[in-house]
Amino acid sequence: MATDFNDFYIEEDFENLDFGEDSPPPTSPDVEEESPASFDDIAATISPDENANGDLINDEVEDEANVAHEAPKAKKQRTRKEQPKRTKRFTLDDATSKSTDYIASVLNGIPKEPLFTKSFKNVKLALALVAILVTFMADVRFAEFCTYLLTRLWHVVTVGDRKPLSYAQTIVTQFHNLCIDEELLNTWDTLLDSFNITRGQLESDLILQHILDTVLELLITDRNSIDLPTLQSEINVSKLNKNEEQVLSYVGGYIPSALRKHYRKLQNLTAQKYVAILDSWCTDSNYEGQYTFLQYTQNWINAQTRGKLFKPNAELFLFFRALENETRKHLNTALLGKYRDINIRELLIGKLTTKYLVQKYWSNLVEGKCLSSDESKNLFYIIVKYFVNIRIKAFVVVYTDLKKIHEKTLSRKGSQSLRKELNKNVTK
Q1: What is the DSSP letter of 23?
Q2: Contact criterion met (CB below 8 Å) for 315 and 368
Q3: Using CA atoms in the order 316, 320, 326, 327, what is the torsion angle rounded to 10 degrees?
Q4: Are 5 and 244 a contacting pair, CB within 8 Å?
Q5: By the 8 A CB rule, do 404 and 24 touch?
Q6: pLDDT averaged over every residue in the chain
Q7: What is the DSSP code (8-state) at residue 239?
Q8: What gap in Å lies between CA 216 and CA 106, rounded to an integer?
Q9: I need a labelling partner for 270 at 20 to 30 A (CA). Which of 94, 169, 278, 377 fits?
Q10: Which of 152, 149, 169 is nearest to 160 (CA)?
Q11: How far is residue 171's CA from residue 182's CA, in Å, rounded to a whole number?
């Protein structure tokens, strides 16, 4: 069950956005909606485990507020409510603890690999090298090499964690640099020399490269199985109807309008570039040449505007629609129980910034603009974080309102049935 977008609440929230400037947050643009509760209160409902980091709730302020409401006579010892533990993360220690198992499984599986089933001379020499190396797997020197290799591969896997837009490219670059690293190659040769293994350079390099390729794949698989567990299975996500698309179009104009208002106050070159590109995303509905098949999405904006609302063009609307379609897969009432120990805000940002369709529409938005790669990524993250803040808030507000209505209805039915039962007992 996806959230009804008709109940979408709009409120500007720059608390967790990084604008890259030491300047006060921008003020809210002219929006007629009534402001809901603060994002701190709502986000705490979803991700209480983040309180200790201060990302969503300041525990000390909350505790002080609770103390202020206590009766002055009753001095009870305050005990901090125990927070649920964070979800377990796959760490370097986990990887190195399995290092010998990783490489042993690779060596034992080499004879079954298609490449090594050929009858070439170099393949036979490589298989002979593997057969000798397997006999030394219980040796301390072999275990030390396994730990060293996993430590180097761990750096390759984690170096792109904070660069999701270029994560794959970063890993590929770092991995190929590792494959030709002199220190690694010398360490491998030293290991084989310590076991007095006679070998040719070609088969030695072939085995090492196969170990690196396969262990990297195993390492990424194990890390993702713990850090990025599958949260949903066969969740039916409803498509946006026309009313929801009109509200989404309003949100798609609200976010760039707020950012544009902020950057107009700044004097640096980057801010000027951002203002120019944000202006280019606005369309004038009076200009017939800009009419598209998505023009109906602006009907609600046209009805609400007093002449100053930001009307997003088709490319910007498609970008926000891709964000919303991906968000609906995760902000779902069927998955609330699985989010208890997960920071839903970080989860959504990670999912959205790595979604291919989202990146594709963003590339269309900034194509031909005078933005550097870093400037484009910075603006991309700001907009995605802003959207996630609004979307989480809307989900929680709608969910709590529906829950209150449901509980109220159940209570009324329960009281009526109780009175009927009492009346029966009295008449008897």
Answers
A1: S
A2: no
A3: 160
A4: yes
A5: no
A6: 75
A7: P
A8: 11
A9: 169
A10: 169
A11: 19
Could you identify the residue written with the tokens 């209160």?
41
Phi and psi, residue 332, nearest 5°: -140, 135
3-state secondary structure of 2: strand
Structure tokens at 369: 């603009």
Low pLDDT (below 70) residues in the chain: 1-88, 162-166, 228-237, 284-300, 302-304, 306-308, 337, 408-428
C-alpha to C-alpha distance for 155 and 175, rounded to whole angstroms: 9
Long-range Cβ contact pairs of 169-178 (< 8 A, separation 24 or more): 175/212, 175/216, 178/152, 178/153, 178/212
Count of C-beta atoms within a 10 Å radius of residue 399: 19
The single-letter code of the amino acid at 191 is L
Nearest Cα to 294, choosing from 279, 315, 310?
315
Residue-wise pLDDT for 10-44, tens only, equals 444 444 555 554 444 444 444 444 444 443 444 44
Asked whether the beta carbons of 313 and 282 are under 8 A apart, the reply is: yes
Angstrom distance (rounded) from CA 332 to CA 232: 9
The single residue listed with the structure tokens 């009307």 is 311
Report the C-alpha gap between 399 and 93 in whole angstroms. Answer: 40
Locate 28 and state its tokens: 């809210």
3-state secondary structure of 244: helix
Q: Amino acid letter at 147?
A: T
